[in-house]
Protein: Glucose-1-phosphate adenylyltransferase
Amino acid sequence: MNRNVISIVLGGGRGTRLFPLTYTRSKPAVPIAGKYRLVDIPISNCLNSGLNKILVLTQFNSASLNSHIKNSYHFDIFSQGFVDILAAEQNVENDSWYQGTADAVRQSMKHLEKYDYDYILILSGDQLYQMDFREMLDFHIENGGDLTIATIPVNAKDATGFGILKSDDEGNITSFYEKPGYDMLEGLQSEVSDENKHKGKEFLASMGIYIFTKTILKKMFDEGAGDDFGKDIIPNSIGKYKTLSYQYEGYWTDIGTIESFYEANLDLCLDLPQFNLFSSSPIYTRARMLPPSKINGSYVSKAVFGDGCIIMADKIENSVIGNRTRIDKGSTIVNSYVMGADFYQNTTEIVMNDRKGRPNMGIGKYCYIEKAILDKNCYIGDNVKIIGGKHIPDGDYGTHSVQDGIVVVKKGAILPPGTHIG
Structure:
């Protein structure tokens, strides 16, 4: 079966709903699970599926994403595989930036002419899942698809937040609605497995994963089909092109908000998390050559640690602790994600800060942190208390912001000793 595929990862959005984590970086560059970046997920799924021709489209706050990809993905000189960056650009023919997901791919098509491919796999850079794209590609080819959309069954409550499509018994999509209102859901149920039907998951949501036959996508762009896949390309293709639904039954979540990001990370701490980091399909990322983590005198339960941590906390429970995190004695971390640091402070600086009563990078002595996300390179002084919850109004507070009761301490923020949040 012909699997001549080029994969495109969309990584250019502003990610405003993930602010302040996206203040200095694009959404796909946000650290996840203590040692990875969100963009590692779609790239790893491609590599584990035997697809090694990958382009990442970037536009907004792209410096850290570019650096991560450059330092992470290297193929040997005898391989035809690559993971390359395609940055948004202005030229004599087009002086505007990307106007939507489809426009990003449209503007990049001229750069694809040097590659030999028959199918284009288009992926989002901000989702958490493990999927073998070969199975979806086989489905697309065997059924003669022009466009195949990966879909996942959802219930009526969740359906209003997704693009919902209706398919017939053969997988042909007959209608599509972008984030329909609750009153529009009647009649949009599709054929799903008995297990999903029993759970009330009878609506098929688009996962933002598409396979196009190359010639068809070019034809759509020539026809001026629109700037966005969800709002323009998909609705316009129904009835005109063979548009198929490929149902996926595994775990998938869209990392679109602070709450979904927080929940996805803490789910990794469970005995049997929905996203399995320990499967035979590894998640690839930058090899940092860090020392192992060191834990001294701490009670630890349901926690995930990155590399190179120095932990002397009293208690860490149901939390993710990122690379190079330092937590001093007497501190407690509960239901939180501490992203860690990009570098170690030298000993001289640490001693000097201790003498002058200034916080060092990491978490100081006798702190209590609950329901929080600490971005990288934070300086948390001694006796700091951060207690998230619905009692704190959402908003931006300078060193930190609050969304859905989750306290997000900004990258590089300094919280003096004795600071209380919540």
